[in-house]
Amino acid sequence: MAGEQTLRGMATLNFWADDVKAARQWYTELLGIEAYFQRPDAENPAYIEFRLGDYQHELGIVDRKWSPNGPGDGKPGGAILHWHVEDIHAAWEKLLAHGAKPYDPITVRGEGFVTASVVDPFGNVLGIMYNKHYLDILGSKNQ
């Protein structure tokens, strides 16, 4: 990774909500677009996702019960911005070697989507992610 940028670009910004259906409605009205992805389904969403802006960045709304610190405990995690990285394991080790502390371990979220986050020495949550969508968009811009 020497000489390469570690953080390539914003991949996904996650917000937490106690009521994901209500958050979906609120953000749909605010953004003027529908969530394009919902899991496990539209009636019982635990995760929804919108694509925004010129690079179709991802805004994910996650059920607060899945927060790394659990629901309503007052710890960091209101929003986690995940930066795309080429090698999540190497980026994780580099962050830890620079004094960051684990927050949410490396976790496969689906095929081509792997996340992790740390708390930097100053108390900020920094998310990293291998994100196939980021690479697809980057590839389409470079054609």
Structure, described:
This protein has 143 residues and is of the alpha+beta class. 22% of the residues lie in helices and 38% in strands. It has helices at 20-31, 88-97, 132-141, and strands at 9-17, 37-39, 47-52, 57-63, 79-84, 101-110, 113-119, 125-131. An eight-stranded mixed sheet has the order 2-3-4-1-5-8-7-6.
What labels would you give this structure?
single chain; about 140 residues; alpha+beta; 8-stranded mixed β-sheet; 3 helices; about 20% helix; globular
What's the helix and strand layout?
Blueprint: E1 9-17, H1 20-31, E2 37-39, E3 47-52, E4 57-63, E5 79-84, H2 88-97, E6 101-110, E7 113-119, E8 125-131, H3 132-141
Parallel strand pairs: 1-4, 5-8
Antiparallel strand pairs: 1-5, 2-3, 3-4, 6-7, 7-8
Termini separation comes to 25 Å
Main β-sheet, spatial strand arrangement: 2-3-4-1-5-8-7-6
Beta percentage is 35-45%
Q: Helices and strands, in N-to-C order?
A: EHEEEEHEEEH
What does the main sheet amount to? 8 strands, mixed
Rg, alpha carbons: 15 Å
Decide which structural class fits the backbone. Answer: alpha+beta
Structure annotation, total helices = 3
Summarize the amount of helix as a percent range: 10-25%
Number of strands: 8
How does the overall form come out from the CA principal axes?
globular
Low-confidence stretches: none
- Overall mean confidence score, pLDDT: 87
